[in-house]
Amino acid sequence: MRNPFRRDLILLHAPAFYDFRARPAFLGPVADAVPSTAIFEMYPVGLTSIASYLERNSYNVEIVNVAYRMLRDPAYDVDAHLRRMSAPIFGIDLHWLPHVQGALALAERVKALHPESRILMGGLSASYYHDELIRYPFVDFVMRGDSTEEPVRQLLQALREGTPLGRVENLTWKRPDQSVAVNPLTFVPADLDYVDVPAYRYLMCSTFKYHGLSNLVPHLEWRRYPITLLLTARGCTQDCAVCGGSRSAYRRICHRDRPAFRSPEKLAEDVQTIGSFSRAPIFMVHDPRMGGMARAERLFGLLEAIHPANEIIFELYSPAGDPFFGLVRRSLPAWSVEMTLEAPDEAQRRRNGKFACSNELVEATIASALAHGCRRVDVFFMVGLPHQTHADALCIADYCEHLLQRFGAEGRLRPYVAPLAPFLDPGSRAFEHPDLGVSLFCRTLEDHRQASLQNGWQRALSYETDVMTRDQIAAATYEVAARLNAIKHEHGLIDDRTYTGVEYRLGIARQALQEDGHWDARRIDLANHATMFGDDELKAPLHQRFRVSPALLRTLAAGLAIEVGRTIARMAGRYDGAVKPGPCVPL
Q: Are the CB atoms for 467 and 389 separated by under 8 Å?
């Protein structure tokens, strides 16, 4: 009789660099503006939707965050853990390219330890490079597209029943003679309500089903600061020149002409679920207006009825005014806004494609948000954009000082800067069209893997611009960061300890740019984080982290009851029929 608890698929998340514990490297400020470390231990939320969807279809799927386990415990033995695992398929995400070295190394190691198992890879970068990726001897399958829950189910069913793999949508695979087959990319769902993404109920029930939380923790700081996420859509309406998640990139990589949205009802349900176990802020990916104002009004109307205790943080892609912020104020007790301007220069923003408007409109948006009770307005800028000169980069600090002089009295405006690093996203307009002002050092997947092995983030940069070399981009990044650190200190946004800590680490990092020698691990660690701003500058105030509510207990009880029923069905040899996904975008 088939073991009802045997894993049908194990989803692994690799560190950016597989051997980072044995080979410390100067990675620079590549992760200062994201929750994870420079090892990029935060796994894509799509792993949870794949696992949840497959579990609903009577497959056992476990997620193991190998990167987090390696960071959290220096004694964690990866090989020993991999040997104890058993599954006919191991899936490894390659969503963003900073993971290329670690993902390939982990795939090769799993194949060596489990030669009878198949290796499946997926994600935006895997999709872009599927034809090259499938030719690595340890890769058996590449699943293409941004929504692979149903195609992965088709693959598992085909392998279980021995039916032809040529019928599996979106699949790139090897025939028995090792020749490559590329199935049509036809599963492009028009909406996302057929899945839970992120699948919080799966994560809670999986904690019990697969014995513990340690494999599921999303990033190193999460236990201390358990920020959660609302994914409003896959795809984007914006076409930012340097973004691999832009409209044209999704069209090129995923055959998606328009975003697939989650309904306001699903998003409101997620907010309620999160509120049952956490009081930490919730970050909403995408501008809530991206699907139109009618959709935004419906969402905020549902949130008003819920009256969430969690602070909601959302993005803006374009100017907004009193009508919109009045709607937000009526709906949310606590909220903040993130604006990625990238450049203070209006012409550069128009070329890039986001906030293609005057600074007057940008500042009117900030003023309106603050006037309607916004807790914080975080404004982000970038060094390394096409056509951005060294002088242009330094103007970032000048413009931030102007914004603080106008809006900084209450400490609710927070400016940040980060480099466009380590790689320019494949599929982005700048990557595909060199005439936009970028020269590439890396074109292929293997180019990027080799670049990852460089000791020094300025050497790993995959591009230079028409006006700055890699060394100049790195030097300008630290110069702008130093000036902005001093400006924020002068305006009282950061205390003496934060200011001196960033200044000290910046000094070490700037020295590292000039040196080629091997450094000790401590100095490398200091140079690799919190050089753009302090460790906790991006974090909203947190008064309570976790809670156990009656709703959470009901969710866990219901989930466990469903799992018991599925286990009985498996033991009896019965399987549920396929869960029907939504309609696909016509091709």
A: yes
Q: What is the spatial distance between Cα 481 and Cα 478, in angstroms, rounded to a whole number?
A: 5
Distance CA(289)–CA(222), nearest Å, equals 28
Q: What is the DSSP string of 441-474?
A: S--SHHHHHHHHT-SSHHHH-SEEESS--HHHHH
**Strand, coil or helix: what is 531?**
coil
CATH of 226-528, one of 3.90.330.10, 3.20.20.70, 3.30.420.40, 3.80.30.20: 3.80.30.20
Q: Per mean pLDDT, which range of 197-201, 212-216, 528-532 is the poorest?
A: 212-216
At 533, the amino acid letter reads: F
∠ at Cα 259 (255, 260), nearest 5°? 95
Residue 108 burial (10 A CB sphere; 0-12, 13-18, 19+): middle
Dihedrals phi, psi of 170, to nearest 5 degrees: 70, 10
**What's the distance, CA 251 to chain centroid?**
19
% of the chain beyond a pLDDT of 90: 83
Select, from the ranges 21-30, 35-44, 319-328, the one with the highest average predicted confidence (pLDDT): 319-328
Count of beta carbons in the 10 Å neighbourhood of residue 437: 17
Assess if CATH 2.60.40.10 describes domain 9-194.
no
Token pair belonging to 195: 């899945």
Say which residues have a Cβ less than 8 Å from residue 520's Cβ, sequence separation at least 6.
none
Read off the pLDDT of residues 70-128 as tens digits, 9 standing for 90 and up. 999 999 999 999 999 999 999 999 999 999 999 999 999 999 999 999 999 999 999 99
Per-domain boundaries in the chain = 9-194, 226-528
Among candidates 418, 239, 249, which has minimal Cα distance to 342?
418
